């Protein structure tokens, strides 16, 4: 996984995901489902992102992780200059999330 460098933080002008991962573990079985596996993308302010995929591809999980509704297992995501883990309230406000 590519690690974020200290100087890179100031250049985030939108949304950046670096290696986001999320695995759902079954309570009943020893089976686990990997919903996100190393998601990387950068979205600049003013750009649009279309998320497409088949059922179970992780589209909703990606959006829920970015909005702070689901905890990620690995990776990093930034909304402008803030990490979603460090300043979730600010990130939600910047994205227009209503909860």
Q: Concise description?
A:
This protein is α+β, with helices and mostly antiparallel strands and 99 residues long. The chain has helices at 59-66, 88-95, and strands spanning 14-25, 32-44, 74-79, 82-83.
Features:
single chain, 99 residues, alpha+beta, Rossmann fold, four-stranded antiparallel beta sheet, 4 strands
> How much helix is in the residues?
10-25%
Uncertain runs: none
Intertermini distance:
31 Å
Topology-level CATH name: Rossmann fold
pLDDT averaged over residues: 85
Structural class: alpha+beta
Write up this protein.
The structure is a single chain. With 99 residues, this protein is an alpha+beta fold. The protein has two helices and four strands; from the N terminus they run E-E-H-E-E-H. It has a single domain (12-94), classed as Rossmann fold. It has helices spanning 59-66, 88-95, and strands at residues 14-25, 32-44, 74-79, 82-83.
């Amino acid at each position: 996984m590519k690690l974020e460098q200290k100087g890179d933080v100031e250049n985030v002008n939108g949304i950046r995901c670096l290696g986001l991962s999320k695995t759902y573990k079954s309570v009943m079985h020893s089976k686990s489902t990997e919903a996100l596996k190393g998601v990387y993308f950068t979205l600049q302010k003013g750009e649009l992102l279309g998320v497409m995929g088949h059922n179970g591809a992780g589209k909703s999980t990606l959006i829920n992780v970015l909005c702070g509704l689901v905890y990620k297992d690995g990776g990093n995501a930034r909304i402008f200059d803030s990490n979603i883990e460090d300043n979730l309230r600010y990130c939600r406000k910047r994205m227009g999330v209503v909860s």
